[in-house]
Recover the amino acids of this structure.
């Protein structure tokens, strides 16, 4: 079997432009044929932590040309972890900006920062896409989206002591 680079062989007549070498095929765990190759494909989606990420079309994922089985794992796709992490962070940044803008119709940013115990200017920076917020903060703003005035409820929550827990009742021992 010879897989030499055709451009290095002057004897090989090349009328058509050289095609990139086909990636080596491996055995498909689904159909058992040696038809699994790193393949680029658009519209691949993948759930990662809280979000559904659309993977970059150029990401090479081992995919079977015969049965279409694909191996999307951190082991089989070396760039997957970094790709997903970057997409997740970008989603947090984007969603935070949108939710801060929305809540800004009801409250000043200073008020929001005070009521959520955030440092002054933090929401302005997030809104401008500077910094990655916690998913918990984005989740909280997402819950406030449908009813922003529930922020008052949080004020009341923090202002009052927790209701005292009922003392555990002593069980009568039946002997
Ligand atoms: Zn297959």
């Amino acid at each position: 079997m010879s897989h030499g680079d055709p451009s290095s062989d002057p004897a090989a007549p090349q009328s058509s432009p050289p095609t990139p070498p086909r990636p080596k095929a491996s055995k498909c765990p689904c159909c058992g044929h040696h038809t699994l190759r790193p393949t680029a494909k658009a519209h691949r989606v993948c759930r990662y932590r809280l979000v559904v990420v659309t993977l970059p079309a150029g990401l090479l994922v081992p995919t079977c040309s015969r049965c279409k089985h694909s191996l999307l794992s951190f082991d089989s796709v070396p760039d997957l972890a970094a790709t997903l992490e970057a997409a997740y962070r970008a989603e947090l940044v984007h969603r935070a900006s949108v939710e801060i803008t929305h809540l800004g119709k009801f409250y000043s940013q200073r008020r929001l920062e005070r009521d959520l115990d955030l440092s002054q200017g933090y929401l302005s920076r997030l809104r401008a896409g500077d910094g990655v917020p916690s998913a918990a903060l984005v989740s909280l703003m997402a819950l406030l989206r449908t009813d922003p005035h529930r922020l008052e409820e949080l004020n009341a929550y923090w202002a009052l002591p927790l209701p005292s827990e009922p003392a555990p009742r002593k069980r009568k021992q039946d002997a």
User: Anything to note?
Assistant: The mean pLDDT is 88. The two ends are 86 Å apart (CA to CA). Residues 24-78 form a domain with the Ubiquitin-like (UB roll) fold (CATH 3.10.20). The pocket of zinc ion is lined by residues 28, 30-31, 33, 35, 64, 66-67, 69 (CB under 6 Å).
